[in-house]
Specification:
45% helix, alpha/beta, globular, seven-stranded mixed sheet, 20 helices, five-stranded parallel sheet
């Protein structure tokens, strides 16, 4: 498998180079597979559906062929995934895909743990330490820190926006020791991301250090997230025959979206043969991509702070990958887009709990509300000519090809629940009058001392710190 660059199609490289460099240091482009292999239909059509680890192995294999032997790949997957996603029914046509059963209680455990083990495998033959730089708006940093902690030959620096993550998220970021440390930047997530991207294209810095990324910038974070899309689409297809009596339903994935890496992973799964009919890009007041879909104009902006802070991204990196995979018209055929402001987020948490008894986190709540509104009439209204506006919360004015399956009651919705609601207990408790239970692994981290280093939003200061502290 060859990998190309979103900014320079003539670039052809291997998986190892794509993973270990994170992004192309010359162009600043993001690596993507040159093509997407199709999983054998006999595997996809197995009854019952294959287990998660079997799916992970079969999907990963063509991307690493010739570079990671099958036995090593199986070992990587077994070590990375002592946990699995869980598909939980909310009603006859709605499922929640719980992605928070890993060590840091967030979906990013799926990508980070696979990536750490792949990097460790490749780094065995390298000299010196590989330095991972990662910007986070919430859960990425803790997942990466946990995945790489005490892994030989690898070193992690996490940047997060001071005062713009939840108290629990900050504890998960700021309490690492050893080969993982955190910098709390006086700025936004976009500022953190810009510092990291600038470092990757700094020729002088790269002469001193071997650098790589652990954000969804890195293809090794993105590919493993596609595994759970395949798992969920196959499992829901099997369940629908009993739950809703719909044979071969149109599967619609409602995805909380900030940097759009998670949704891009869903696109990869679909390209590989997952029976996914369409996607809902569900986000918050930082609705850069919904605006692009509605107006045709991509306009990055400064991020705005919201209750769904992991999606507080005004310039999503993976827009570049989506635009490389599809034309705007193809995106419009495939996506519905939806956004909520803070009041809407609180109402969504409250409404989900009141209607279903299920407690969701603020990010999953937006995805649930998007699906619930779409299947309850907002898509029908849009098809009937009530267009609304992309500048107002709710469904934005685009009708995807799959809209008729929803109005004809031939679809099921899968809501991606990306974090344990206990990570946002204050917001959840205010919304629905009840605190979510706190997993033991989160309670333990709250007792640890903070070790985060303050950092100005200034590249030269950041570069100086790296030079002094990573040498």
């Amino acid at each position: 498998m060859k990998y190309t660059d979103t900014r320079e199609a003539s670039v052809k490289t291997d998986f190892r180079t794509a993973v270990m460099s994170g992004m192309n240091p010359v162009t600043g482009g993001l690596y993507m597979p040159e093509s997407f292999p199709h999983i054998d239909r006999t595997f996809i059509n197995k009854t019952p559906a294959p287990c998660f680890r079997d799916i992970a192995f079969n999907m990963a294999k063509p991307y690493v062929e010739g570079e990671i032997p099958d036995d090593e790949l199986k070992g990587i997957i077994e070590d990375a995934y002592p946990f699995s996603p869980k598909l939980v029914p909310l009603d006859s046509i709605t499922y929640v895909l719980e992605l928070f059963h890993g060590p840091t209680c967030a979906f990013k455990d799926f990508g980070a743990r696979f990536m750490a083990r792949v990097m460790s495998f490749f780094n065995k033959t390298e000299k010196g330490t590989l330095h991972i730089l990662v910007a986070t708006s919430g859960d990425t940093g803790s997942a990466v820190g946990s995945a790489f902690h005490n892994v030989a030959g690898l070193d992690v620096t996490i940047l997060y926006p001071e005062g713009k993550v939840s108290a629990l998220q900050e504890k998960q970021l700021s309490t690492f020791t050893g080969n993982v440390r955190a910098l709390k930047v006086r700025g936004t997530f976009d500022d953190c991301q810009k510092l990291v991207k600038t470092a990757f294209t700094d020729a002088e810095l790269r002469k001193t250090f071997r650098l790589s990324s652990a954000n969804s910038i890195n293809i090794a974070r993105l590919l493993p997230q596609s595994f759970y899309y395949m798992y969920a689409s196959l499992a829901s297809r099997d369940r629908a025959k009993l739950d809703s009596k719909i044979d071969d339903p149109a599967v619609i994935m409602s995805v909380p979206s900030g940097n759009f890496g998670n949704l891009t992973s869903g696109l990869i799964a679909r390209e590989m043969g997952a029976p996914i009919t369409g996607f809902i890009a569900a986000t918050n007041t930082n609705h850069t991509v919904p605006d692009w879909i509605a107006t045709g104009e991509y306009r990055a902006r400064a991020s705005v702070e919201t209750y769904a802070n992991a999606m507080d991204v005004g310039a999503p990196s993976n827009y570049e990958r989506i635009a490389a995979m599809y034309s705007l018209e193809q995106v419009r055929h495939l996506f519905a887009s939806y956004w909520l402001d803070n009041d809407g987020i609180m109402n969504a948490v409250r409404s989900c709990h009141a209607k279903t008894g299920y407690i969701t986190d603020p990010h999953g709540a937006i995805a649930w509300k998007a699906w619930d509104d779409i299947r309850s009439g907002s898509m029908q209204n849009l098809m009937g000519g009530i267009k609304g506006s992309s500048e107002k919360p709710g469904l934005t004015p685009n009708i995807p090809d799959w809209a008729r399956f929803v109005t004809e009651k031939k679809s099921v919705g899968i809501i991606l629940e990306t974090a344990d609601p206990a990570k946002f207990s204050e917001t959840v408790a205010e919304a629905c009058g009840r605190e979510p239970p706190m997993p033991d692994r989160l309670m333990q981290v709250m007792q640890l001392p903070d070790n985060a280093v303050p950092m100005e939003n200034d590249y030269e200061a950041f570069k100086s710190w790296l030079t002094s502290n990573l040498a």
